[in-house]
Every structure is written in C-alpha cells, then in structure tokens.
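Form 7-S
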Amino acid sequence: RQLWDMIVHAIVRVLQGELQLPVGWRIWWCLASSISSMPLHAAGPYRRGEANLNQIYVSSYAPTLAALVKSRRGMQQKQEPRSFSAISQADLPTAYLSGAVSEANLVKTLIPEPTSFVHLSGQEATRKMVLEAPKRHDWVYSARHRQQDIQQPYKSYFEMDRREKFTLLDLIDAGEFAFLSACHTAQGDKATPDEAIHLAAGLQFAGFKSVIGTLW
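Output:
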C-alpha cells in the first residue's frame, strides 16, 4: 500500500489520463537505486472497491532500456512456443528440492498443443543435454538451485547433480523465454541493487527475450 501511495498511484494516473493506456496492457518498469529491489508490481490500495496495479496493468521489469529494446526486437507475433523444455533436479549438492519434479510435471499439463514438450530430470539432465535445451527449444522452465556471483555476474550458475554446473556464459544467444523456479533469481546486491546483474537480468542480456524470476 505504501508503494501505491508514494510511487505507483501517480504513475497510473498519468498512464490512464494523459496517455490513455487501456486496462490490461503491459508496462515495463526500468528502475534505479534501492527502488529496483521493490515489488512495484504488487502495489495497490488494497481497499474494497479499488483496483490494485495487477488488476489494471501487467507489469514486467527491464534491467536497462537497451536490454528492453533488444529483447523486444524480433519478437514473434505468435506467443505460443513451438517447443518447450522443462529441467528439474531435486537432489543437488547444496539442497534437496522436493517439489522440483512434480512442479515440472504440472507445467506440462499447462502447455498447449501441438507444442512439443521435453522433460529433463535426474540422470537425464546431463550438462550437455541441459546446455542444448535453450538452443533447441523456444521456452525453457528450470527448477533447480542457483548460486549468484555479484562480483562476476556471468559466472553465476545453476547447480546440477554430480556437482556439475552451467553459467550464464554458457547461455549466450539462447532461447526466447525462460522461467527460473529458484530463490532470488531476480534479486540484486543490497549494496548496489541497480548495478548488480542478477540471474534473470543476465539471461536477458544473454539473449532471452523474456524471463520470469523471483524476488524472494
């Protein structure tokens, strides 16, 4: 509610008034300084009879305007993926993700036909297969643990079993859409929140046109 009162409400008034942006359209937030860590997409009055932001516009974030322009350039008009890859690994060196496999199976039920679907899990998710997935499939869903390197962002990596890993550098010029089902994949450094490249931003810089990450 504080974000709504102090920041978002004034912006929505301009969007609806001066710009006459229709309800339901997508808006992109390109934030700076400490505000870049705040969940503006969740702002709202949270009062009966008044709409919250997510009931007015669909929010997305961009690390820079250049990254946004690059990601939107060449976007396909048809949004449904031609092929979809889900990667889930539960038993990792630093964590056990009990819901990773069932989560990926649930995703499969939501993929529209005739989209092809490939699920890499456990021993099937070798480093070679995982690295090929974003190049062979338009959309990629990943349920795994991550390690972020604030000092050298492109050395941030996703864990695999058998103590293997793959970094952001391995994903240059990869797919169209990525869903990162892991903790803090869209959270930067507390000291320099608008300068650190988190995993979601790194994937966008690497070539993914759209990325879903988490602030929690």
